[in-house]
Amino acid sequence: MKSRRQTKILEIIAKHNVETQEELSDRLEREGFHVTQATVSRDIRELKLTKVAGKGGRQKYVALGKESADMSEKYIGIFRNGFVSMDMAQNILVIKTAAGMAMAVAAALDAMDHDEIVGSIAGDDTIMCAIRTVEDTERLMERLRRIVGGE
Fold first, then answer.
1. Which helix (H) or strand (E) holds 96?
2. What integer pLDDT is reported at residue 65 of this predicted model?
3. Long-range pairs of 69-72 with CB within 8 A, sequence gap ≥ 24
């Protein structure tokens, strides 16, 4: 049942711009899956769904880890559009974003799969990334500068 439900969730978010857990629950109910908010929340976490900015500034759920080359370009676009600046404090990378964009930019950064990043935390307009070493932080910053510069 869980596998069928999670497959249906991926199908739903691929076809529709789903913005909230409640909307996802409603769509699952219409498809014959009786779910609780806790079940939907757990499925979202297990499927590694995240919200990204959609058309008109509205957010929608997308699945990370199943991206094509096209999705990779979308993540780079999200990163570029939300990025404001970055600085480092030893092995901590701090990225400033446009207001309200930190979570989307962090999700894009995670999807780009930089091995140096151990983990990240996003607020409203700031992301803090724990990086393995100071040297890794410097290398990653250089790569991110190239992405923002359009190289």
1. strand 92-97
2. 55
3. 71/111, 72/111, 72/112
